[in-house]
Amino acid sequence: MTILVIEDDIKTGDYLKKGLLESGYNVDLARNGVDGLHMAREQSYDLLILDVMLPGKDGWQVMEEIRRSCDLPVIFLTARDQVDDRIRGLQLGADDYLIKPFSFTELVLRIRTLLRRGVVRESETFQLADLKLDPMRRKVTRNGVNIILTNKEFMLLHLLVKRQGEALSRTVIASQVWDMNFDSDTNVVDVAIKRLRAKIDAPFERKLIHTVRSIGYMFSEQP
Q1: N- to C-terminal Cα distance for the chain?
Q2: Looking at CB atoms within 10 Å, which of 35, 85, 175, 184 has the fewest?
Q3: Which intervals hold domain OmpR/PhoB-type (predicted)?
Q4: What is the Cα–Cα distance from 118 to 113, expressed in whole angstroms?
């Protein structure tokens, strides 16, 4: 497993690289957002650890640009500790958000959990209408067209497809996909659904993701 760390603080960056190497990971380190984004695009990584306050491009910008092209799992590791910052990170497509100062043991546990989630062990292929989802290969197609999803988008679609025909509440979705208690003041689930619809439904005539008023969302051929 190879991890990319984008961290401009010299001591923190060196500490992360040394600790992750000792934990058995291959590690590349970028000191600014521009170099880090270039490395993330040009090389293959299993996970990205990303700071927010970076020179060149900040972490928000890096996150946005990465999500336009790939599904690389991302953990924000930052001193930005406001709830709004955490929500923004998740809305941009991050898989986790850890506040500095941090426990290195906790970081490693979160990395292991996230990487395990990326290895979906189900062999069953799901199909509804012209959409096919292959959990083992992490592949999604509609009408034969390959659809690229982020890690969270794939987890969200996988949940919806497995429980197709069920109206899933935002609370259930948040707990299953983000391991978080749903707060009615946040719109993380709604934003994620909107992004998933843009990829899964918008380019196609038949819509499969439906809003169930006062409850949440349903994956079904029927509205």
Answers
A1: 42
A2: 184
A3: 123-221
A4: 9
Residue type, 77: L
Place of tokens 């439906």: 210
Q: What is the pTM of this model?
A: 0.59
Give Cα 14 to chain centroid, integer Å. 25
Q: Which of 42, 36, 115 is nearest to 73 (CA)?
A: 115
CA distance 204 to 199: 9
What are residue 142's DSSP bridge partners? 131, 145
Q: Which candidate, 112, 113, 97, places its Cα nearest to that of 23?
A: 112
Rounded Cα distance between 27 and 4, Å, is 6
Question: Phi and psi at residue 128, in whole multiples of 5°?
Answer: -145, 125
- pLDDT single digits (tens) 14-41: 999 999 999 999 999 999 999 999 999 8
Query: Which of 104, 4, 148 minimizes the C-alpha distance to 62?
Result: 4
Tens-place pLDDT, residues 161-175: 988 888 998 888 888
User: Which domains are assigned to the chain?
Assistant: 2-118 (3.40.50.2300), 126-219 (1.10.10.10)
Question: Locate tokens 């003041």: which residue?
Answer: 185
Could you read off the pLDDT of 182-212 as tens digits, one per residue? 565 578 899 999 999 999 999 999 999 999 9
